[in-house]
Amino acid sequence: MATSRKNAAAESFGFLTLLAGILVVLNFLAFNFSFGRLDVTEARLWSLSDGSKRVVRDLGDRLEVVAYFTEKAPAPWNSQRQVVRDLLEEYRTAAGGNVSIRFVDPDDDEKKEEAEAAGVPAHPVPDYETGGATPIYHGVVFRYLGEEKVFPLLQSTDGLEYQFTMAIKELAGDKAPLGIVTGHGSPSLTEGLTALREVLPTYEIEEVDLAETVDTDLRAVLIVAPGEAFEESELQRLDEFVMQGGGLGVFGGAFNVSLEQAPRATSVDTGLNQLLGKYGIELESGLVMDQQAGRAPMRGPLGLQMLVLFPPVPVISFTDAQQDHPVLFQIPSAPMPFTAALGLTTAPEGVRVTTLGQSSEYSWRTTETSLDLTPKDPREWRVTADQGPFTVLAAVEADEGKLPSAFAVAASGEGEGPTGPSENTASARVLVGGTGAFFLDQFMPQPGPGGERQLNGALAFALNAVDWLAADSDLIAIRAKTVEDPLLEVPDEVEAAETEAIEAAENQDQEAFDAALEERKEAIKAWDGKKALYKWLNTLGIPALFGLFGFLRWRFRQNKRQTLSI
After folding, report:
1. Are 81 and 198 contained in the same domain?
2. Residue 126's domain is classified under what CATH number?
3. How many Cβ atoms are within 10 Å of 38's Cβ, its own excluded?
4. What is the DSSP letter of 98?
5. What is the pLDDT of residue 223?
6. Domain finish residue from 125, 140, 167
7. How far apart are CA 258 and CA 299, in angstroms?
8. CB-count burial class (<10 Å; 0-12, 13-18, 19+) for 558
């Protein structure tokens, strides 16, 4: 019996040693050679999107990528090198020979000089082991046809695919022409929309004067936050552009919003409904207010500034069906500040009008033609009987020959009126939003140290909208991986404590005010504790359960052996 046990133990040890050796060899082969990868994440975070593959596959020449990384960088920088390597290998595999990659560790003077000359300088980063700072190289250079794009310091690996594919598209040239309508109280590329070129580097953006015929070489034309009326002849030129296959985006046009010293929204009639109404959509009066909204700072009577619910900035949650549309692809929510509602009119037969965004059931519409937008106690906003949900975003699509011109067409060019096509001669795309705030500089995410901007839901929606209108979908799926998670809902206890603090401040009750602040502090502490608990349950709970299962299984086998009789 003892000999049998020794033999069984030796066999088990040999089997485990062989298995461990096989796993080591497989890991070595998988690390150094590409045998295919399996990505089971919902957003395909570790796989190249089809758009990225198409971009590098269509390169007409060789793309050179040089990555300068200090191999012995302190944590957490030392883990990012492999993530970048894996991603670049994905590009090389997809390109079929058109991408070359070189990793350089600037560990001597010659390599350091090369990195500096390439635009990747050394950056001091905190070294938590020594308590000081360590200079490291942590950047990537893309070179193509004599042009280059430099990332001097990769702060994070989040959104790298989007940044890299955008850079490759920019280097490959062939920028799509995009038009922005000027005048009519709209912001311009030099004032109000200055960041647009930065966030849309793959487009050649130009301003459009509707006093002249719209250039049909433009892939799309945008109207952003107009505050003055359009003439009928200008609307006719827009209609003619749509009839010839150009994409039209109308964002705002029912309100003129000023956020200067005395923030105010004032109703305007831009006349855009003469055009949009014929396509199946109209801009309606009244600002949409919502209890599902963002927050804004309010100064209380005692001088304390607090974040309070701000109904004029609804946060729109998109359904699964809406997230299937390219404009909202996998974007769960986005704020739509100072938006008007849209009315859906009777569209021509064969024209598809799709509601892409609605306010919540807790929304309402104002009746004032001029509304003070100063942040205040949420209870002071006057709720009207005109209750939501309201449509705030909609798309019009029509196959060739299905969308009639919004204006009468003069026969053979004789008489007054437009002389363009009587119906669309190519697929038509029109996107209408109740607001254009997400395009404005003041609502854009602020650039980080490296100039990059956090791709939140609002910015991703704005960029997707342009790509969809211009029929360029390469980057849409990639942005879905990069969009930040939606904000957690603030617990009722926190909001209740804030409301009590506001009431106490109004009543000049210092004791009640201090008590409410303490209650708010405790509620936030409990909220943070709950989030920490979930974090550690995910981090340690699953491994602990797995270990417990193994222990119970081992005890079961031990008991079975002890009770085994021959």
Report:
1. no
2. 3.40.30.10
3. 6
4. S
5. 96
6. 167
7. 20
8. exposed
- Find, among 408, 429, 411, the residue nearest to 244 by Cα: 429
Distance of CA 442 to the CA centre of its chain: 17
In-domain check, residue 378: yes
Both structure tokens of 408: 């009468």
Tell me, yes or no, whether 355 and 455 share the same domain: yes
Where a domain ends, among 130, 150, 167?
Answer: 167
Give CA–CA dist 345/281, Å, rounded: 6
Q: pTM of this prediction?
A: 0.71
Number of structural domains (the chain) is 3
Mark whether 123 and 202 lie in a shared domain.
Answer: no
CA distance linking residue 117 with residue 148, whole number of Å = 13
Contacts of 232 by beta carbon, 8 Å cutoff, 6+ apart? 271, 274, 407
H or E element at residue 264? strand 264-267
If you write DSSP's letter for every residue of 49-118 in order, what string do you get? -HHHHHHHHT-SSPEEEEEEE-TTPPTTGGGHHHHHHHHHHHHHHHHTSSEEEEEE---SHHHHHHHHHH
The residue count for the chain: 566
Domain assignment present for 305: yes
First to last CA, the chain: 11
Whether 25 is in a domain gets the answer: no
CB 256 within 8 A of CB 265: yes
Residue 217 sits in a domain whose CATH number is 3.40.50.880
Contact 503, 302 (CB under 8 A): no
Closest CA to 158 of 71, 49, 46: 46
* Domain shared by 301 and 270, yes or no: yes
Same domain for 379 and 418, yes or no, is yes
Burial class of residue 336, CB neighbours in 10 A (0-12, 13-18, 19+): buried
Residue 314 lies in a domain: yes
If asked whether residues 302 and 388 sit together in one domain, one would say yes
Residues 180, 206: contact at Cβ < 8 Å? yes
10-residue averages of pLDDT along the chain (566 residues): 59 64 64 50 62 86 92 82 89 88 92 92 80 86 91 81 86 88 92 90 92 93 94 94 94 89 89 94 93 85 76 93 89 93 90 94 92 88 91 94 82 56 91 93 80 79 91 74 53 67 60 71 72 68 71 72 60
Indicate the residue type of 459: L
Domain that holds residue 436: 176-482
Residues 131 and 216 in one domain: no
Confidence (pLDDT) at 44: 52
Cite the beta strand spans of 380-443 per DSSP E.
391-398, 428-433
CB-based contacts of 416: which residues, under 8 Å, 6+ apart? Answer: 410
Please indicate, yes or no, whether residues 390 and 327 belong to a single structural domain of this protein: yes
